[in-house]
Structures are given as structure tokens and as C-alpha cells.
Amino acid sequence: MSDSGGTLPATDSNISATGELGLLYNKGNTNSSSINAKFNISQELEKWSYQAIANTRYKTSKEADDGGDEYDVTTAQKSFISTQIDFKLASPDERIFIYAEYENDRFDIYDYQTLVASGWSERLWRDEFSEFKYSVGPGYAIAEAKNDEDNDDLQGIILRTALEYTLEISKSAQFRQFISTETDPEYTRTKSETSLSTKIFGSLAMKLSFIMEHNSNAEVTQESLDTETAVTLVYQFF
């Protein structure tokens, strides 16, 4: 299971591709603008399945210098890509997975973070309205610190666990909960996304999401828990 998801898969061999876009502009006491964009593609085939996700976030704020002239300051810039391939065993709900991700956060203490993991994946149930699946397995993670003598590169074996639950509340509304954790004896990173999607018309939907990310190795000047609430438009390509 990759990190940011979309819709309940339909029948086997069907392919699903969605794009999300969120724009926010504030003017008044605080002048800022932000862009959130995601692309998610997945497919269930007879012997295997895959999912690939790309996600980017960019935010700027207006600040004034001593002369009162305003200028734009970038306050958030983050990119994330991931992919997971599941190879189905005798029972199609029992699988072996390979997962990889790459993250680049301009304002993190690390220049980039990447990991590769593999192990056991299983779809515990799937019916007309809901689906629950999980994956767990060992992997190897690398986090390269920025040019700062106070921070060290991190690399080593980790354990990755992911859970995903989706529920079709009605023909036009869907709830989704996703949680993933990567941990080793000295480091734990947990991500959670709770979302509710509602169709507006045709292939267009509106999505409300609450995202939490906890990093046990955050810099002293940073919060360990980072949260984000977003409203985005979702377009289902096919």
C-alpha cells in the first residue's frame, strides 16, 4: 500500500487514475498561497497489482522588509513519490509486496529520505462497500542530512507496516483511513491520512483530508508532530 490513496478498486484488471489539486489563497493580516497536487494510479491484474503515487506541496507567504516593501518567501516545499507492486499467491488476497518511496522536503533536516521494503501483504476482506488490507515487512532506509555538522546521515534496516481501510458510505461518498509506520531501534516515522470524498458531478469530486506525520527524530527547533488539513478537487481520469 502506498501512502496516499484514492478510490475503492473495481473489478480485477480495471485501472484507476485520479488527480488532485488544492489551491488556497489568504489575504488580510496574513498573505499566503499554497498548492497541493497529487496523482495516483493503480491496477488489479490476475497475477499482480500495482500502485504509484506522486505528491507535491508548495506554499509562499508575503513578508515585508524594513522599508515596507513586500516580497514572497517560500515556507513549504515538499515532493513525494512512491510505488508498490504486489505479487499474488495461490489466494489472490495473499501477496508478496515490494515498496519504494522517495521524499524531498526543503525545510526538513534531511536533504532527502528514501526507502525500499518488501514482505507480506494481505487483503483481509473486500465487498461491495468496503475493503481492508495491510502490509508488513523489513526494508532499508536512507536519510541524507543537509550540510550541517549538527546532523548525521541515517541509514539502516527498518520495519515498515501499512494499514488501509476504505468504506463506500453511499454512491457519491467514500471514507478512507491510511496509516503507515517505519521504525528501527532509534527512529520512528508514522503517517496517517483520514479523508472523506464526495462526488460533485461526473468524474469530479471534492475531498476533505486530515494528515498527520510524526517524526521521532525531528530537529530540536521543529515539532515532532506535523498536521495538515486540506480541501482538494479530485478528478477520476478512468
Structural class: mainly beta
Spans of 5+ residues with little confidence (pLDDT < 50)?
7-12
* β-sheet strand percentage: over 45%
Strand-and-helix sequence, N→C? EEEEEEEEEEEE
Q: State mean pLDDT (0 to 100 scale).
A: 86
Shape estimate = globular
Can you count the beta strands?
12
Percent helix: under 10%
Question: How are the strands of the largest sheet arranged?
Answer: 1-2-3-4-5-6-7-8-9-10-11-12
Gap from first CA to last CA: 20 Å
Helical stretch count? 0
Largest sheet, strands/sense/barrel: 12 strands, antiparallel, barrel
Radius of gyration: 19 Å
Structure description:
The protein is mostly beta strands and 238 residues long. Helices cover 0% and strands 73% of the residues. The protein is built from no helices and 12 strands. It has strands spanning 15-26, 32-44, 48-64, 70-88, 94-105, 110-126, 130-145, 154-170, 173-184, 187-201, 204-215, 225-236. The chain has a 12-stranded antiparallel β-barrel with strand order 1-2-3-4-5-6-7-8-9-10-11-12. The two termini are 20 Å apart. The model is unreliable at 7-12 (pLDDT under 50).
Based on the model shown, name its key terms.
single chain, mainly beta, 12 strands, 238 residues, 12-stranded antiparallel beta barrel
In short:
Helix content is 0%, strand content 73%.
SSE topology:
Layout: E1 15-26, E2 32-44, E3 48-64, E4 70-88, E5 94-105, E6 110-126, E7 130-145, E8 154-170, E9 173-184, E10 187-201, E11 204-215, E12 225-236
Antiparallel strand pairs: 1-2, 1-12, 2-3, 3-4, 4-5, 5-6, 6-7, 7-8, 8-9, 9-10, 10-11, 11-12
